[in-house]
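Figure 2 data, in text form.
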Amino acid sequence: MGRVRAVVAAVVLVSAVAGCGSAEPSDQAGASSRPSGGASPAPAAPPSAAPTAGEKLAADPGTRYKTIAVPQLEGLVCDEGDGGFHFGSDLDMTVTGDDGLKEIEADDAADEVSCFGGRRNVLRKGTMSASAPMFTARTNLYANVPDPTAALNRIYDASVDLATGYGRNFTGEPGTVTSRSLVVKCRQNVTDTFPMTTCFWADYGAAGVVDFFPDDSQYVPVPSAARWTRAFVEGALPK
C-alpha cells in the first residue's frame, strides 16, 4: 500500500538523463532505461479485441493464480521493474483500498512490469529529457475477490484519492469496460506536467493498475489504454 519514494520527479529526470551520458538518452541506455529486444521501429498499435457492447462479467470460474508472468505482447518489449523511470514523491501509482482482500505472496512473481513500444518514448521537462516506458503495471494476487466490480470501485476511489493528495490531477470522467473475465476502469490525469492515462482492473483472483505514459506529449486514449490493459492481464496471469 503506497511505497514511499523520496526522490522528486525532477531529480529522477536528472538521474535518468545523467545515466545516459547526454541530454538526450541514447539507444544504448537500455540497461537502465529500456529493455533490449527485437522490437519493431514503429509504435505498437493497441490490440483490436474489445468487449462486446453490453457484455457482463461472468460467474466466478474458480480460477486463481500462483504467479504473475512478464507478458509477451506483440509490438512491445516487457520486463520486470519500472523500466528505469519513476516519478518519486509517491506519484507512482499503486493499488490501495484492497484492505478487505487477502493478498497472496506468490514466489518469483513479476508484480511490477514495464513495457516499451517499438520506438523510444521520451518525456521532456524544461531542458531535461528521459526515456520512459509505454506503461508500467503493478499486480496483486488475492485468495478471492467475491465481487470484482465492487472491489475495483473501492480500489479506484482509494487509489485516486491517495494519488490526488500527492499531486496527480485527474481530469474528465472515468471510463469502465467490462468483459466476461475482467472489469477495467480508466481515467486521464496530469502527473508532474505529463498527461497520463491510468487503468485499474480486477477479476475474481487479482487486481492491478496500469499507468500509461504520454505518446508524443498526448494522452493515450482511454479505449486504447483499456485494450492494452486487457492484453496485459491476459499475458501476465497464466491460467
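Caption note: Residues 1-41 have pLDDT under 50 and may be disordered.
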